[in-house]
Amino acid sequence: MGRLGYFIGEGSRGLFQAKLMTFISIVTVAIVLFVSGLVCVASFSVWAYLKHAVERADFEVYLTDSASSNEVTRSNLLDSLRSFPQVLSVTYVDRDSALGRFSNLYGPEMLDAVDGNPLPASFEIALSRKYQSSASAAALKDRLRNQKGVEGVRFAREWIEFLERVQHWFFYAAIALVAGMIVVLHMTVSNTIKLTIYARKELVRTMHLVGATRFYIAMPFIVEGMLQGCIGGAIAMVLFFILKVVFMAEPSLRQVPLEWGPDLMPLGFLLTGVLFGWFGSVFAVRKFLA
Q1: 156 within 8 A of 58, measured Cβ to Cβ
Q2: Between helices 214-249 and 265-288, what is the axis angle to 10°?
Q3: Which DSSP symbol is given to 146?
Q4: Are 274 and 26 spatial neighbours (Cβ–Cβ below 8 Å)?
Q5: Dihedral angle of Cα 209, 215, 217, 222, to the nearest 10 degrees
Q6: Cys-Cys link to 152, which of 62, 184, 198, 264 (CB 3.0-4.6 A)?
Q7: CA pair distance 42, 44, nearest whole angstrom
Q8: How far apart are the C-alpha atoms of 67 and 231, rounded to whole Å?
Q9: Does the predicted TM-score (pTM) go above 0.70?
Q10: Which stretches within the chain are classed as H helix?
Q11: What's the rounded Cα separation, in Å, for the pair 123 and 146?
Q12: Nearest to 272, CA basis, from 220, 235, 219, 218
């Protein structure tokens, strides 16, 4: 217990050995963790939006006039569509509903030159999450074309492929950004501990001469790095909490569709800060107290 108190005391005292670098290190930890939290929020939000967008992807089966007017044929086709494993749900849109949608989107004057209702009845299909890919959609399209009563099939293949590319590139960009910030965080903490070791080199040399073990000499510096990470993580946690409260309290901002992740995510800032503080200080100690 006495050793633990010594390590914590010396580690706390070390925070003031290189005040400027310690301040920069803590601020860097706070900024990196806060920005990483924003990246996580953006990732959760984009993933949620892309998931919703893919589920809404247009996949329409247009019926022949005879099929749309024959309830038995239409019912048989509906049962057949629902039996496909790729299909999550099927919605029937009759000709009047199709005309109403078209008029709402483009205005009724677009069909003034046309006699009657030229729009066909259709089935709108939502794909199951397991099969939400361009390859699965293309395979389903080939099967749908061969169904009795089907005049044509349309699906937004380009849209689905675009969403898949966005998912991949966003993932890679987020990984690259977080990896770059981790490198900056590691270098900042390591350099701060190195400066602290330089500032206390006479004490370190004396402890070597009196027979102190490497572990006994190194632990105060490791504790110092962990304290820097803990303080920086706590600042990031507070900033993230304030940002979330502001967004949730302001009606205009509350309309922004953000996914804030798990409730315990802010606590992860604190733990991550301690972890990287430990890692950076261990790296510095191994290199300069060998």
Answers
A1: yes
A2: 150
A3: T
A4: no
A5: 160
A6: 62
A7: 6
A8: 69
A9: no
A10: 2-14, 19-55, 65-69, 71-82, 95-106, 134-145, 157-199, 201-209, 214-249, 251-254, 265-288
A11: 15
A12: 235
Alpha-carbon dihedral 29, 35, 36, 37, rounded to 10 degrees: 110
For Cα atoms 58, 115, 103, give the angle at the middle one, nearest 5 degrees.
Answer: 40
In tens, the pLDDT along 254-263 reads: 666 677 877 7
Would you state the structure tokens that stand for residue 200, as one six-digit string?
A: 């206390």
- Tens of pLDDT, residue by residue over 86-104, are 888 888 888 888 778 777 7
Pair 178, 39: CB distance under 8 Å: yes
Q: Tokens 């960009």 — which residue? A: 173
Distance, CA of 246 to CA of 255 (rounded, Å): 12
Mean pLDDT of 18-40: 83
Reference 64, options 157, 155, 145, 140; nearest CA is: 145
Query: Residue 129 gets which letter from DSSP?
Result: G
Q: Give the type of residue at 240.
A: F
Within 13 A of 103's CA, how many CA atoms are on the CB side?
A: 13
33 vs 176: CA distance, rounded Å:
15
At 87, is the secondary structure helix, strand, or coil? strand
